[in-house]
Amino acid sequence: MSKRDLKKYVSELDKSQLEEQLIALYDKFKEVKVYYDFVFKPNETNLLKDARLKISNEYFPIRGKRPKMRRSVAQKYIKHFISLGVDSFIVADVMLYAIEIAQALTTEKQVTNETFYKSMLASFEQSISFMIDKGILDDFKSRVVGIKDEAVRQHWMNSYQFNAVVERFDY
After folding, report:
1. Euclidean distance between CA atoms 114 and 79, whole angstroms
2. Left (φ > 0), alpha (ψ -120 to 50) or beta: where does 112 sit?
3. What is the CA angle 127-129-45, rounded to 5?
4. What is the arithmetic mean of pLDDT over 141-146?
5. Mean pLDDT on 40-54
6. Using CA atoms, how far apart are residues 3 and 15, in angstroms rounded to an integer?
7. What is the crossing angle of helices 159-167 and 141-153, to 10°?
8. Cα(73)–Cα(79) distance, rounded to whole angstroms?
9. Residues 93, 144: Cα–Cα separation, whole Å
């Protein structure tokens, strides 16, 4: 069904039929429930706190012996926040936090997996692109430079690429 067909169908419904359809969607699809729960009670502080806790648990697990270090956990939260329409500053904060917590782990424990460093660089580039698109890169300048400096300080195998990313933006 095209958007035009949907508009035509919706315009033919009366108010009570529309209400019934919305309630049915709310009951049937979790995504719709999450969306409306956020729209009517946008508690971004709790969302941010939960995301930070889950991301940090990937690198510094509360239970278990070894960190899983899955970038996908942070990516899932970032995608979810963007789909909900969470404030861009909060999304950028989560993006940078995921890299910073990974760097905290590599301060304590050497990671030899090359894909780990590649994924952190990809996250860094993605966060920079997001912040440029939203026009908020200057607000996060110190954290961006801090991440680059930490990658260099820890001698990450791709630290020169972190440096190159930052140099492209004349910091």
Report:
1. 25
2. alpha
3. 40
4. 96
5. 89
6. 20
7. 150
8. 10
9. 11
Structure-block tokens of residue 118: 């590649």
Place of tokens 């329409």: 85
Q: What is the mean pLDDT of residues 130-137?
A: 96
Answer yes or no: are the C-beta atoms of 70 and 116 closer than 8 Å: no
Percent of the chain whose predicted confidence (pLDDT) is above 90? 64
Say whether pLDDT at 171 is over 70. Answer: no
Q: What is the rounded CA–CA span in Å between residue 145 and residue 54?
A: 25
Answer whether 151's CB lies under 8 Å from 103's CB.
yes
Check the CA dihedral 27-33-39-40 and report its sign: positive
Residue 155 DSSP label: T
Q: Which residue has the tokens 């026009």?
A: 135
